[in-house]
Amino acid sequence: MIKKIIVSVCLLFSLVSFAQEGTSSPYSFYGIGDVRYRGTIENRSMAGLAIVPDSIHINLQNPAMYSSLKYTSFTVGGTFSANQLKTNQKEEKAQRTTLDYLAVGIPLKKLGLGFGLIPYSSVGYNIRNSVFSNENGIVNNNRTDNFYKGSGGLNKVFFGFGYQLAKNFSIGADVQYNFGKIDTRSLSTQFTLNSSNIYEQVQYSTRETNSSSASGVNFNAGLSYNTKLYKNISLFSSLTYSPEATITLNNERFIAIVQSANGILDTVDDEVEIQVADTKLKMPSKFSFGLGIGDTKKWIVGTELTFQGTSNFGNRFNDIDNVSYENATRFTVGGYYIPDYKSFTNYFERIVYRGGFRFENTGLVINNQPIEDAAVTLGLGLPLRGAFSNVNVGFELGNRGTQNRGLVREHYMNFSIGLSLNDRWFIKRKYN
Fold it and tell me: Which domains, from first to last, does the chain contain?
């Protein structure tokens, strides 16, 4: 197990670098980018449902669940994403491969500890937009091509604990330090129509580059309670709350006159720094409540509701006038089924079969159009022979956004794989 932890430290640097290009969504233009993290692979395979105490899997959504661990656990997960982006005029495709999280959980009798690193949000877009000039409603011979590009994102280092107050009741909390950098660039190029009806590029273009370094701390608290209803059937409940927090963005902006061709930079003729104010973004408060029923060794079905006060959120700069925010909501239903977890003769009967559905109003409103997200999920938990460790795979198929009012509709497919490696630590030997 120590070797596994050493490997995890080496992977920390990879996680940070992968987080910089973790999305291809044009909606990552706004705020801190596209929020990627939705739980571990086993939870995401149930559409994000995370209400059941688990002795061999780390639950990163509710810190109270750390107290349920019976083995020291190391978990890491990654995702391959294939996106189809559609507007009323055009269609594009994009792909990304990312690492999603890395965490360690340590049980200490009734106390459980957890720590790790999560790439929380990502900025990653490359957009070209053509605007034709007009006078008195009549289009003239001038055209402006605007090129937008962004990268970076927000990462979280966290440390948390869970404590079992009673046999079926646990509490927990964690502290998260947010850090990262977001870089964006916009390039504006003029074209005129010549006598041969061919657009010729004006020699000089205007480029604006913005850089924001983010830092801040936020907290998360959770409760977990379960009670037996009948024989092996139990009721499970989960509650988490994250209060509003502040992320400080140290901003820089540069304006330059450049020579370019089709958005590709050739030379910079003149560049000046423009003083812009630093920004304090309000990370919204979030409240989640979930209920489920079942036998943990056989099947579980449950639902979870999440409310997020996104209406107080904002953008990195105050010069974007087509976007606003409203309170966000997410509805999740999911579960799992295990044919026979004790089977020694049939491997497929020990596989955990997972599935779920979620619907989300993201809270982002562009051109007075709310951005919604819906997806179905499937997954498998594949036990490794001779150990309590397992490989978890998940599949997600969903849609986000709309083609109304000039916006983009995203059809996405995510294939995820995660490792949950478990071992016993701190065992007192009976014989020396």
Answer: 2-348+387-423 (2.40.160)
CB atoms within 10 A of CB 236: 20
Token pair 């790439």 is at which residue?
119
pTM for this entry: 0.85
Task: Tell me the helices (H) and strands (E) count for the chain, helix number first.
Answer: 2, 20
Q: Are 239 and 170 in contact (CB under 8 A)?
A: no
Q: Residues, the chain, total?
A: 432
Residue with tokens 């309170």: 327
H/E run at residue 15? helix 2-19
Print pLDDT tens along the chain (432 aa): 444 444 444 444 444 444 445 677 888 888 788 888 888 999 999 999 999 888 889 999 999 999 999 999 999 999 999 989 888 888 888 888 888 999 999 999 899 999 999 998 888 888 877 777 665 555 566 777 888 888 888 999 999 999 999 989 999 999 999 999 999 888 888 777 666 666 666 677 888 889 999 999 999 999 999 999 988 899 999 999 999 999 999 999 998 888 766 556 666 777 888 888 888 888 889 999 999 999 999 999 999 999 998 876 767 766 667 788 889 999 999 999 999 988 888 899 999 999 999 999 998 898 889 999 999 999 999 998 767 889 999 999 999 988 888 888 999 999 999 999 987 655 555 545
Residue 264 half-sphere exposure toward CB, CA atoms < 13 A: 2
Q: Which of 82, 75, 63, 123 is nearest to 101 (CA)?
A: 75
Backbone angles phi, psi at 351, to 5 degrees: -70, 140
- Residue 85 CB neighbours (<10 A): 20
382-390 long-range contacts (CB < 8 A, ≥24 apart) are 382/351, 383/347, 383/350, 383/351, 387/422, 388/56, 388/71, 388/422, 389/56, 389/419, 389/420, 389/421, 389/422, 390/56, 390/352, 390/420
